[in-house]
Design brief:
Helix content is 79%, strand content 3%. By secondary structure, the protein is mostly helical. It has a two-stranded antiparallel ribbon with strand order 1-2. A hairpin with a 4-residue loop joins strand 1 and strand 2 (60-62). Helix 1 (2-9) packs across helix 2 (11-21) and helix 4 packs across helix 5 (104-114). The longest helix is centred in the middle third of the chain and has 32 residues, at 66-97.
């Protein structure tokens, strides 16, 4: 998690340490990516349960039940993990199309660290007064900055091919992270939240029926 913050504020020096260490696939997955996912999404789920979520159409806060928060956090973790894996595969394929010889492990390192700001933005998304898509956009902008040095220092493409490969990496990250965010939100805003919204209807009906019999509508 510390590395994810360092990549945001000092990307060149941090990428230099990453490339020098030459960590393998399983080390990056188990020591960096999975702990970052668990901590960031776990904090978001905790905040959703404690602080609730603002419903724009209703104008008040709805506290997210524990089971729904856990289901949402679990779904988001799986979606982002799959997104990183697929992004690494697509980046490797894009590298081949640019005649840049890379391995899946190298592409995975770029994406595992490049997704760091997007994953960290999950903590900010736990604050109910910040729009969820604004949080996603903040993470994407920071990831775009992080990827700039990662592409050049890990994949080492030629100057004539580096910028094109960088643009492809941006497109992959934006599409994958947006898809994961959209599907995770569909889990959060599914049947449990609709049930809470519908449960208020009988109260309104009972309130109307409890009005004086002689009252006439205005």
């Amino acid at each position: 998690m510390i590395t994810a913050f360092q990549l945001i504020f000092s990307p060149f020096e941090t990428w230099e340490r990453i490339t020098t260490a030459q960590r393998g696939f399983f080390w990056v997955l188990c020591v960096h990516l999975l702990p970052l996912l668990v901590i960031s999404i776990g904090i978001e789920g905790f905040l959703l349960n404690r602080l609730g979520e603002k419903q724009s159409d209703l104008g008040f806060m709805i506290r997210v039940p524990v089971d729904l928060a856990v289901r949402y956090a679990g779904a988001y973790l799986v979606l982002l993990l799959a997104g990183v894996m697929l992004s690494a595969k697509f980046l490797a394929l894009a590298s081949e199309s640019f005649n840049v010889h890379t391995t899946f492990a190298q592409s995975f390192v770029v994406m595992a660290y490049g997704f760091g700001p997007i994953i960290l933005a999950r903590v900010l998304d736990g604050v109910p007064f910040v729009n969820t898509w604004v949080c996603w956009a903040i993470g994407v902008v920071a990831s775009v900055s992080v990827l700039y040095h990662g592409i050049g220092m890990v994949l080492r493409p030629d100057q004539t091919k580096g910028f094109g490969l960088y643009l492809m990496a941006i497109i992959i990250v934006v599409l994958m992270s947006a898809a994961a965010h959209f599907v995770a939100l569909s889990v959060l805003h599914g049947k449990p939240l609709r049930f809470h919204a519908q449960s208020s209807t009988p109260l309104l009906v009972r309130s109307a029926s409890a009005s004086p019999a002689g009252a006439t509508p205005s």
